[in-house]
């Protein structure tokens, strides 16, 4: 009984950071998000120079699912620390007018980029490879996309799966199988 109570208290008081503040554009601003010129080729070069993976977050003002992710998932130390240590994050606004330069060289507004890439829902996260051919768009080059709000385990597993380049591995463990295995390992108390 004591172990159950201690586990409950541990979960209740797990390290949680303050939720990201809202910027002037109404989007949540986490300290691990980069303020760039939104030239994706340049951002990819900067990410590579830091030994990190580029992730493009598409969010929008008033998005309840974006708020959920920032308040309940990205505010968790294990998630925010992992993102900060391994990813170069560029945030875009689904309805924004800031110019973005896509990997194929096209200059367009954030909202036009969202349409071009077929992103309809927020949050959506595009995970980029370390090298993108000049004829590719962000959407066509992405090694994975996380469409929507998910819990801590799923989010951390997706970021880990991308960071470890498991999409390249010559095995049958796609993300769904990887995630199922990780869930089982967490339930068994093994996270190695």
From TrEMBL:
<keyword id="KW-0732">Signal</keyword>
<dbReference type="InterPro" id="IPR012336">
    <property type="entry name" value="Thioredoxin-like_fold"/>
</dbReference>
<feature type="domain" description="Thioredoxin-like fold">
    <location>
        <begin position="48"/>
        <end position="131"/>
    </location>
</feature>
<protein>
    <submittedName>
        <fullName>Thioredoxin-related protein</fullName>
    </submittedName>
</protein>
<dbReference type="InterPro" id="IPR036249">
    <property type="entry name" value="Thioredoxin-like_sf"/>
</dbReference>
<feature type="signal peptide">
    <location>
        <begin position="1"/>
        <end position="18"/>
    </location>
</feature>
<dbReference type="InterPro" id="IPR041737">
    <property type="entry name" value="SoxW"/>
</dbReference>
<dbReference type="Pfam" id="PF13098">
    <property type="entry name" value="Thioredoxin_2"/>
</dbReference>
